[in-house]
User: What shape does this take?
Amino acid sequence: METELIDVCKLPMKLDDAGEQMKDPTFSAMIDRCDGLIIVTPEYNHGYPGLLKHALDMNLKEYIHKAVGICGVSAGPFGGARVIEGLLPVMRELGLVTIFEDVNFGNVRNIFDEQGKLLDQAYVRRVDKFLNELTWMARVLRHGRENVSEV
Assistant: This one.
């Protein structure tokens, strides 16, 4: 398994355009090559950052029948639960398949140190379950993309 971190703040985007007209070939190639995605996003006023939506809209066909898991992050107690709820219809519209597990990091200042090390070991089991589900779904969907013809 290979992983690659994509920081949407570092993607070259034309903010005066929308959708595939602003597609970045490098980002699109990464998405095309992957079998699954993990979106880690903060919650702002019950929603996701506009820049994340802008970045997601840069691709379409690259997402079809690929697994996605969402991690919500919040300074408050709900751990980004509302941002996850808000992203689910977007994932479906993009053709991504959401997994059954989410990870919510509430009161984020209390569960990570300044270097990003996890302080609350209760999250280890939740993250493990999340990653196992994502891996399973990504493998199943890859098999389908490679072996099952579209109707």
The domain at 17-145 is CATH 3.40.50.360 (Rossmann fold).
